[in-house]
Amino acid sequence: MSDPRPTWLTIAEAGRALADGSLTATALTEDCLAAIGEAGVLNAFVHTTADKARAMAAEADKRRAGGESGPLLGIPIGVKDLFCVEGVPSQGASRILDGFVPPYESTVTRKLWAAGAICLGKLNQDEFGMGSSTEHSVYGPSISPWRRAGDTKAIVPGGSSGGSAAAVAADLCLAATATDTGGSIRQPAAFTGTVGIKPTYGRCSRWGIMAFASSLDQAGPIAKTVEDAALMLGAMAGHDPADSTSADLAVPDFTEGLGRDLVGKTIGVPREYRDGLGAEMTALLEDGIAKIRDAGAKVVEITLPHTKAALPTYYIIAPAEASSNLARYDGVRYGRRAGLGQGDGVLELYEKTRAEGFGAEVRRRIMIGAYVLSAGYYDAYYLRAQKVRRLVRRDFEQAFEGCDAILAPATPGPAFAAGEMAGDPVQMYLQDVFTITVNLAGLPAVSLPVGQASTGLPLGLQVIGPAWSEARILGMASAIEARSGGRRRPEKWW
Amino acid sequence: MSIDADTVRRVARLARIAVEEHEIEGLRQELSSILDWVEELQAVHVEGIEPLAAVNDTTMPRRADAITAAPGEDGIREDVLANAPEAVEGFYAVPKVIE
After folding, report:
1. Contact at CB, B86 and A337, closer than 8 angstroms
2. Where are the beta strands (DSSP E) in A332-467?
3. Whole-number Å distance between alpha carbons of A32 and A30
4. What is the C-alpha end-to-end distance of chain A, expressed in Å?
């Protein structure tokens, strides 16, 4: 067992230590940089910004000495590579953006820096957010700090925000930004014993975040506790005129529901989510139900009849939007251009650049997207998928007439071993079965650790709410968290 | 739905991704298995259902139709071209296009 160190702190704990003067942002940042240096084998941080971090920490200490305060003032965090950070390499883990250094800052990170958060660097992910294991990355795979008991085999941290989840679970940073298009915040959080919230579509600005599927993408945090996730979200959220889909709504205090009982609340558990659920996950769900009941809530069975159709719907809509969004990577305006042969024209420039620049999974999805949008197939695939999407959303609207929130598994099981899902794309897509409906409907959901598998790996549940109910579902998550024992951290082997 | 090799070549061209001849069969199988699987959707009853393209039902906001950056005045051109693989005299450069 190693000795406790500053990086182990939660945002709330570090905030108290910074406020009472027992810790400085500079000391906390140095400890994070040291922890990152020790954890190279996890391949979570892919660009470390030590100089920037030290300068930001000094500035935070100065601001605090000048009388400023705030929950994120002096808190070191990591940033998923998908977010553009001015002057810092940002390439969405893709070879096609090799060498890209944004001359601008994403709205979400700009807000975090304004709140006093400190940038430690960029975090690994699946290329452009496409994947569920962080194995599809130009930087090479990230691996989880967790291992199965008595086994040294590398375990995936989930994806696409696997670097964010691994870094938070391994205490390399206090929290991290992430994005969720089909489960990319909640699945890695569940795999690594961390907390992740995908907010309502429109809660956080997408400006400056590399687009994957624009009608589904949302930014959110991965953190060590529900309270920390609420504090991070508070700084990340808010209206942005630069993103026409960002909602013009005031940002509430996301911590207001924490620590309360759930008397008078009704939680629905979808019948369809129990179909085919393994014994271990069924037991976890029952455990979550018992904890919710203990907090005073009533638990009812609900039905989401189009659950089974949601997954194929997503795997038409998301690739269609991706094929359109990723058309921008053409080797002309930014990123990496392929070497051209004698007589090659502009078409060869595009085709060779994109062949060399995209990994296998991204290429697959772009091609599926181009196919389902092409003449003669549009109605049968894309239009039909959009109709089913409305049915999926209608399911939730009807369910919320009878309950305040929904409790569901976050994943079909614990994290799998590296390489275990290679070779069958559809098998990997099935990882998203419990998370994807929420993106299609644009709803908020928080994933939190509730128990563990027989192998000792973490398992997570998610609480799903109606649009704009983040404070409510964070409150419910905190009630489950309070009944799940303290935070479990992986034994350090790296 | 299974697709044939010519469809793979056509889709690769639509997507502007060069595909080597030896990759075609592997891609054909991968794409066919995904398309087979999404075929499940054909069983869902969607008669009379309006397609849902975006979950936020608000109307698109408008901004003033005004020039916010102009060449040579604010240095934006340099910022924009800084990441270009090839830029010449303030423009993106591409191979010669002859129609």
Report:
1. yes
2. 405-409, 445-452, 458-464
3. 5
4. 13
Taking an 8 Å cut-off on Cβ atoms, the answer to whether B11 and A345 are in contact is no
Q: What is the pLDDT of residues A15-59, one digit of tens each?
A: 999 999 999 999 999 999 999 999 999 999 999 999 999 999 999
Size of interface A-B (CB pairs under 8 A): 162
- The catalytic residues of A are 80, 160, 184
Distance CA A420, CA B81 (A): 43
| Cβ contact A103–B35 (<8 Å) | no
> Are residues A437 and A392 in contact, defined by beta-carbon separation less than 8 angstroms?
yes
Q: How many residues are there in chain A? A: 494
Residues 6 or more apart whose Cβ sits within 8 Å of residue B43 = none
3-class DSSP assignment, residue A118: strand
Whether A341 has a pLDDT exceeding 60, the answer reads yes
Give pLDDT tens digits for A265-280.
Answer: 999 999 999 988 999 9
Query: Measured between alpha carbons, how far is B7 from A190 in angstroms, rounded to an integer?
Result: 39
How far apart are alpha carbons A244 and A250 in whole angstroms? 16
Question: Is B52's CB within 8 Å of A306's CB?
Answer: no
Q: Do residues A438 and A432 touch, judged by C-beta distance below 8 A?
A: no
**Chain A CB contacts of B37 below 8 Å:** 312, 315, 426, 429
Q: Which structure tokens are listed for B54?
A: 């975006």
Please write down the long-range contacts of A336-339, taking CB distance under 8 Å and 24 or more positions apart. Answer: A336/A95, A336/A96, A336/A97, A336/A98, A336/A99, A336/B85, A337/B85, A337/B86
B34, B68, B88: best to mutate for the A interface, most A CBs within 10 A: B34
Q: How many helices (H) and strands (E) does chain A have?
A: 15, 11
- Contact with chain A for residue B60, Cβ under 8 A: yes
CA-based nearest residue in chain A for residue B23: A360
Q: What distance in Å separates residue B12's CA from the closest CA in chain A?
A: 6
The model's pLDDT over B3-62, given as tens digits with 9 standing for 90+, comes to: 999 999 999 999 999 999 999 999 999 999 999 999 999 999 999 999 999 898 777 888
